[in-house]
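Notes continue from the previous slide.

Worked example: a multi-chain complex. Inputs as given:
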Amino acid sequence: MKQGVEVAGLYVRDQDEALAFYVDKLGFRVHTDVRNGDYRWLTVQHPDQPSFQLGLFTPGPPVLDAATAQAVRAIVAKGAMPPLVLNVADCRAAYDQLRERGVEFTQEPVERYGNVDAGFRDPSGNGWKMIESRR
Amino acid sequence: MGTDQRRNTPASPDPELLRRLLRAKDRMDAASHEGWPVSRLARVSAVSEAHFARSFKEAFGVPPHRYLLTRRIERATALLRDTELPITEIAFQTGWASLGTFGRTFRDITGESPRAIRERAQAAVHALDRVPACIVSAADRPDLRTAVSEKRRREAGDITGSLDKLIKEIR
């Protein structure tokens, strides 16, 4: 058995919208999509990273009460969740491609110390840095 | 002021509005050297000019133009640390109309002169080389909790400097 992180989750405002974004725009694949009543366990995977799943979860019952869920939705919409980093082979090419697909970029590709990074957000407000690293 | 802030903050801010306000914040982040009058920011967020500044402050804790100041100083700090550009050039590139305003605001916010920050930052930069550079720049963001004008008044007893004046200079 392999040890390590298997799932890390994001809060999103709408799971269908998030699924369309991560799969159709970013090119992730659906790993698991199961429902139990109102609850939906939805994870996606980067095609090159089969051992890791990114969870796309909505804040709400039965896990969170209504007031907590509302607070979490506000925090996500304000872009206050911690940064996410996506490694890419060619940041400028990925930028052109994703922008054409309608991804909302917050920062154009910039070269710093030999790396190139750009920034984008998912529809909910989660912020990603997209980094082409020389390391 | 804390009480007023609480009274003005709606119990449940609308996440859709917050997401659109975030777009205005992102646009300032991406081009902090540009002019950002309320009309322009309100258009990005699709809210009325009358509501924009207050909604932004409720969402992010600082008025939009004070936020813009912190971003300009953050960028200037990065240029001071990472480049050998003359300070005049850095002032110009980060959106200031005059070197005097830049230097004064820089000292008001950071407590140090651009030259002192340059010397200190260049000495400390190597410790951060394991953190992505784009995230390091955010960590350098000045924490501007009081109005620049208040800080200036408190520290220098200057009652003529006002944030309004500063904001006009930014626009």
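Summary box: The first helix of chain A runs from residue 15 to 25. The longest strand of chain A covers residues 104-112.
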